[in-house]
From TrEMBL:
InterPro entries: Biofilm_reg_signaling, EAL_dom, EAL_sf, FHA_dom, GGDEF_dom, Nucleotide_cyclase, Rev_trsase/Diguanyl_cyclase, SMAD_FHA_dom_sf
Coiled coil: none
Domain GGDEF stretches: 211-346
Protein name per its UniProtKB record: Diguanylate cyclase/phosphodiesterase
Entry-linked SUPFAM superfamilies: EAL domain-like, Nucleotide cyclase, SMAD/FHA domain
Positions of the EAL domain: 353-607
Pfam families on file: EAL, FHA, GGDEF
Organism listed in the record: Crocosphaera subtropica (strain ATCC 51142 / BH68)
Gene3D superfamilies membership: 2.60.200.20, 3.30.70.270, EAL domain (3.20.20.450)
PROSITE patterns per record: EAL, FHA_DOMAIN, GGDEF
Superkingdom to which the source organism belongs: Bacteria
Positions of the FHA domain: 42-102
Length: 616
């Protein structure tokens, strides 16, 4: 980058008048342009369609914008310079005012501007000019030569020589516009005022060119608790970090602004495809959900989102903003409702949940999570028909923690999305590894969380994992509970149909605990029916349980489904299941969940063995 140098105005003289005038002198190594600023906005850049053209190949086509703003308290106005255009496109090399790089800045009399290259400018705000002002739109810029007195051998220009009668034009600091009116002081992002300017301009362009645009609101959950527990300085550091991560997650044309205390707004002025909002949202969440190191402690935050898209959600800025805010509130309510319904023996205060989420994320990052595998056995032949992957947490201090204790917390804090993806990938990788070892091929069953079912990107995640692990889809089975299906049967139906089209097997888990899915079962693309452990354990104690399991087996056989009984722990339970014509079983009587090494040895030793050998 070239050194900043200063333009020179020769033989310019100022006469006093009551009308303020604004002037910008733009100069490079060959030309000087003197422009009187009178319009509301001026576009600046290399493109010849700009209001002000700067001649440099290093300059962007739309490098900056001058925007006039009035101070209604004293009826004066000043110009602000913005990096890029009002569509959100940023310049390539940035804009520097008095040597400081800035996104937006109010210009003061005598400010020196550099466009990140050999082009510089000086801004003047004074009373009416006595000389004739050169208008770039009417006359060619004045050409400087090597013999011109303004240029010396190093191509740097001398300091301005001008008499402004400066004392007569100094404004009271209280009457001048403040930078914070357009820029958030903490994050240095645009604030509400400037974002609305961007939004209005983007709407205008979207209407003119018949394109789509989006508004996305992001809120940091439990932020008041963070401020309370860690203090406001820590809260400020978090806001600055989140702001930077949001900026790095966006395309060049997108704009992020500070919208409230713990809320950010993202403007997506160019949406050429319907899935843009989904892709951008996933990228944002993936980036901001990474750990933050606060006082040598890793912290994982939770977020709520709300979005609105033009034109389907509204055609005015106010309607779009209200729609996004309503979506955000609904997301928060869903999370609160989920928290209230969870049967956790954990303090539901936000600070506890944040610590729990942090611990789970650390467990995953530090490889404390491990998969165990429980075989599924064909009762009549004794053959191993499949295995179910079960996650365990090997805590360095508490020892092994069962999933019944930490999975509900993971679902409550949305950590289950990351953990669930890891479980799915590890299970597929291990199944392919066993196949490559020459062991008989069988189905690997993986439990699916209700939150994964709601994740709009889940189908793509499954596709990617199968592609990366090179596992054929028909060797993977996903288990979904009755409760998850009934929570949103229409969504569940569509997701399950998409999964079945991939070739993945589907299993209804915990059947018999709700009974209400019996009428819905035929329309869902299930291949397996798993009888709940709670039913099997009361099989020999409650006669009505026998009737329930008998009905489940008959229903499964009539629909040509695999029927597996979970939680088989006694010979008597197994005998009753066999008499009821139940096809398969799993439980501690047959095998407890095994780690990778134990499961490999088990599969190799008992392949093709009869159940009597397994029980012996």
């Amino acid at each position: 980058m070239c050194h900043i140098y200063y333009p020179n105005i020769m033989n310019t003289h100022i006469n006093y008048s009551h009308e303020n005038r604004h002037l910008i002198v733009i100069e490079d190594q060959k030309y000087r342009q003197t422009i009187s600023l009178e319009d509301e906005t001026y576009s600046i850049g290399r493109n010849t369609n700009n209001s002000i053209i700067i001649r440099s190949q290093q300059a962007s086509r739309r490098h900056g914008t001058l925007m006039r703003r009035k101070n209604h308290r004293n009826n004066t106005y000043s110009y602000w310079i913005i990096d890029g255009d009002l569509d959100g496109n940023k310049s390539r090399n940035g804009i520097y005012v008095n040597g400081e790089k800035c996104l937006i800045k109010e210009l003061k009399n005598g400010d020196l501007i550099n466009f990140g290259c050999e082009v510089n400018a000086t801004y003047y705000a004074s009373h009416e000019w006595s000389n004739t002002v050169t208008d770039i739109t009417k006359t060619k810029p004045h050409k400087l030569t090597n013999n011109s007195p303004e240029v010396h051998s190093q191509y740097s220009l001398s300091q301005p020589h001008i008499d402004f009668n400066y004392d007569s034009q100094v404004l009271n600091p209280k009457d001048t516009l403040k930078a914070q009116e357009y820029q958030d002081a903490l994050t240095k992002l645009p604030n509400k005022i400037l974002l609305k300017e961007y939004l209005l301009n983007s709407l205008k362009n979207a209407k003119q060119y018949h394109t789509s645009m989006g508004v996305l609101l992001l809120d940091i959950n439990h932020f008041k608790t963070i401020n309370k527990n860690w203090g406001y300085p820590v809260g400020d550091k978090i806001l600055v970090e989140v702001a930077q991560r949001l900026k790095s997650s966006l395309r060049d044309s997108d704009i992020v602004a500070r919208w409230g205390d713990d809320e950010f707004i993202i403007l997506l002025p160019k949406m050429s495809h319907g899935d843009d909002i989904e892709k951008i949202t996933q990228r944002i969440l993936k980036n901001v959900s990474k750990s933050l190191e606060i006082s040598k402690t890793l912290l994982y935050l939770e977020y709520s989102l709300g979005c609105a898209i033009y034109p389907q959600d509204g055609e005015s800025s106010n309607i779009l903003l209200r729609k996004a805010e309503m979506e955000l509130l609904n997301h928060k309510k869903e999370m609160i409702s989920s928290d209230q319904k969870s049967n956790l023996t954990i303090d539901l205060k936000a600070s506890k949940l944040l610590k729990a989420k942090t611990a789970l994320q650390q467990a995953l990052n530090q490889q404390e999570l491990e998969l165990y595998y429980q075989p599924q056995i064909k009762i009549k032949t004794g053959e191993i028909s499949g295995v179910e992957a079960l996650v365990r947490w090997n805590h360095p201090e508490l020892g092994q923690i069962n999933p019944q204790k930490f999975i509900p917390v993971a679902e409550q804090t949305d950590s289950i999305l990351i953990i669930g993806e890891w479980i799915l990938k590890e299970a597929c990788r291990q199944n392919k590894a066993w196949q490559d070892m020459g062991l008989p091929s069988f189905i690997m069953s993986v439990n699916l969380s209700p939150l994964q079912l709601k994740d709009p990107n889940f189908i793509n995640i499954v596709k990617q994992i199968l592609r990366e692990t090179k596992l054929e889809p028909h060797w993977l089975e996903l288990e979904i509970t009755e409760k998850a299906i009934l929570a949103n049967s229409e969504l569940a139906y569509q997701v399950l149909q998409d999964l079945r089209q991939l070739g993945v097997h589907l299993s209804m888990d915990d059947f018999g605990t709700g009974y209400s899915c019996i009428n819905h079962l035929p329309k869902f693309p299930f291949g397996t029916l798993k009888i709940a452990q709670s039913c099997v354990q009361t099989l020999t104690e409650k006669p009505e349980t026998v009737a329930i399991i008998s009905a489940a087996v008959a229903l499964g056989n009539s629909l040509d489904l695999r029927v597996i009984a979970e939680g088989v722990e006694t010979h008597k339970q197994l005998d009753v299941l066999q008499n009821l014509d139940c096809q398969e079983a799993q439980g501690y009587l047959l095998s407890q969940p095994l780690n990778c090494i134990e499961a490999t040895r088990f599969l190799d030793l008992y392949q093709g063995s009869k159940i009597s050998a397994l029980l012996g």
